[in-house]
Amino acid sequence: MKTDNTLLENMLSDENIMEAYKQVKRNKGAPGIDGMTISELKGYLEENLDNIREQIRARKYKPSPVRRIEISKDNGGTRNLGIPTVIDRVIQQAIVQVLTPIYEPIFSDSSYGFRPNRCCEMAIIKALEYMNDGYEWVVDIDLEKFFDNVHHDKLISLIMKNVKNGEIVSLIRKFLVSGIMIDNEYKESVIGTPQGGNLSPLLSNVVLNELDIELETRGLKFVRYADDCIILVHSSKAADRVMRNVSKFIEGKLGLKVNMTKSKVSKPNDIKYLGFGFYKDYKAGGVYKAKPHKISIVKLKAKIKKLTSRSWSVSLGYRFLKVKQLIVGWVNYYKIGNFKKKCKQIDSWLRFRIRMCIWKQWKTPQKRIRMMMKLGVNENRATRTAYSRKGYARIAISQPLSYALRNEVLKYNGLVSLLDQYQLKHI
Asked: In the chain, what is the straight-line distance between the N-terminal and C-terminal CA atoms, in Å?
C-alpha cells in the first residue's frame, strides 16, 4: 500500500486528539476493563500521549479488549454492547475525525445514520416523499445482529480502497481483533465490530455503502439509517422480486445474515421504521404521514410508569425533572409526527399517576387535610377525603383531589405535559 503519512500525522496532531478527547468527554459513558474514568482521562493523556503516538507510528499500539455488557431488547432478546477503555475511545474518535472527510463524499445521499448534519428526521421525511410519489410497497430487510456479523477481512479490504495509510489500517484491524472480556474471561473477536465503540458507526457505513451502491445501480428508491434499511417500490410483485435479489446480494456479496422471520414486504401502514408508523390522512387528500408507532407509545408509557411508581422514594421535584427529561426528549425525536390526540390521553394518565404519588407522599390524614385546604378544598371535603378508606386510584380520580392537584397546580410545580411540548414544536 502506498502510504500517505499526512493522514497519520493529522490523526495524531494535538488539535485532532484534543477534539477527540472533548467528544469522548461529551459522550460520557462507563469505564472499560481498566476502570479508568472520563475524569482521569485528561491527566493520563498529558503524561502518556507522546508514548502512545510513537507506538501507533511503529504499529506497536495494542488496544485493550472491550468490556462486554448485554442490553435487554423489547422482544426478549439481548443486544451486545462493547465498551472500550476511555483511551481507546479517544484514539478511535481521532481516526473517525480524519476518515470522515474521506468517506462523506463517497457515501450515498440515501444514508442518514451516524453522519454529520444528517438525522433520523431527514430519513423519515425522505421515506414519506417516496410513499407520496406512489412507491407504496415497502421491502423491510432486517439484518441479523449486524454489528456481530461483519467480516473483518471484507471490511479491511473496503477500507484499503480509500484509506492510503498502512498504520491507520493496521490500527483499525487491531481494534477489530482486540477481543472481548465477558465476566473477566477473555474471548477472541474473530468477527464483528463492537457496538458501542466510536469507530463502529463509521465502519458500519463503510460496509453498508456497498449495499447502497448496489441499490442505486438497480435504480431503487431506499432510505437507510445505519443497518435499518427500507426499499420502496410501486407494486407487490416488484417488492417480492427486490426482497429475493437484495437478500441474495447481502448474504452472498457482503457476507451478512438476513433475518427472514423479521424481514417482510408490506404497505407503509404495516411497518415500523426508526420508531415511526405511517398512515394515510384522507382528510388531507390521502397523503401519507408519520406518527409514533404504537410500540413506541407502549415503550413511552412503560417509562412513565416507572418514573411515577409510588414505591420510588424520591422528592417530587426530582420526579418531575426525570419526567420532563423523558417527555422533552421523546417529543423532540417524534416532532415531525402527528400525535396530538395521543398526547392528551397520556397527559391525563400521567397526571392521574402523579396524584397517586403525591397522595402517598402526604402520608398522614392531618397533612392531607392541610395540603388540600391550602390548594382550595374546603375543610369538610378535605377531611372526608383524607379519612376515606378508598385506594390510591379511587382517591386520585376523586373530585376533591382532582381539584386540589388540578392541571395548573401541577404545571406550576414543574410537571411538563406532552401536549404543551407538542404544540411548542408545531407552532
From this structure: 56
